[in-house]
Amino acid sequence: MTRGALIVFEGGDRCGKTTQCSKLVEYLQSTGVDTQMWRFPNRSTSIGQSINAYLSEQAHLDDAVVHMLFVANRLEQRTEMLRLLAAGTTLVLDRYSYSGVAYTAAKGVPGLTMEYCKSLEVLLPAADLVVHMAMTPEATAARGGYGQERYEKVEFQKKVMEAFESLRDERWAVIDASGSIDDIHKQVVAVVQPVVERARAGAPLGKLWD
Ligand code: FDM
């Protein structure tokens, strides 16, 4: 049995990740790759509903607590994620632990360091590929709907962007998110295809931050 690939899209708010995730899933399915799209936070669970209340500013939560809720919201999907990957399903994730670390670390709260945030995620699998949709916070702020949620503020998004940059390693592909939807999609397909092939050929799934 060959395994599925874990493909993650990351980037600032309103950079077009969700559109590209959907297009990628449609493309992979059309080429016969069993694929599912997931998003984090998963707002449908009870933990996810608390996160949603926080993000939409209906609830206030301590920064350390909300960080743990985001982590728990991934851990509650861990078994199913591992089961699907092992069964050969490729997962395309709209955000994952990299957002968890970048957004919390960007707050600059004493003690909530990148190292601390990373340490809470070690039970989760690492992405085979992180597609970083990079765009300046000023450009995303000009997009429709910006500013509706808690973190959609240009100064904060700049810090998030810096945090993402410091997390990049050889598993990351950086794509200019300011181009056209179709151009970006072509670039995404070009970086994803070899990763899906490698997973299919038996490349082992990594652990986060190893
Ligand atoms: N976010 C997302 C975090 O702060 N931590 C996390 O672990 C994750 C997965 O929640 F502002 C933030 C990032 C973003 C918000 O927005 C979720 P979208 O629009 O649902 O991606």
* Bound ions, cofactors and other small molecules, one mention each: 3'-fluoro-3'-deoxythymidine monophosphate
SSE topology string:
EHEHHHEHHEHHEH
Helix content, binned percent: 40-55%
Low-confidence stretches: none
What is the radius of gyration? 16 Å
Into which percentage range does the β-strand content fall?
5-15%
- Structural class of the helices, strands and pairings? alpha/beta
Distance between the termini: 25 Å
Shape: globular
Mean pLDDT: 96
Describe the overall structure.
There is one protein chain. The chain is an alpha/beta fold. The chain is 48% helix and 13% strand. It has 9 helices and 5 strands, in the order E-H-E-H-H-H-E-H-H-E-H-H-E-H. A 5-stranded parallel sheet has the order 2-3-1-4-5, with helices on both faces. The radius of gyration is 16 Å and the shape is globular. The relative contact order is 0.22. The mean pLDDT is 96. It binds 3'-fluoro-3'-deoxythymidine monophosphate. 3'-fluoro-3'-deoxythymidine monophosphate binds at residues 13, 40-41, 55, 70, 95, 99-100, 103, 149, 151.
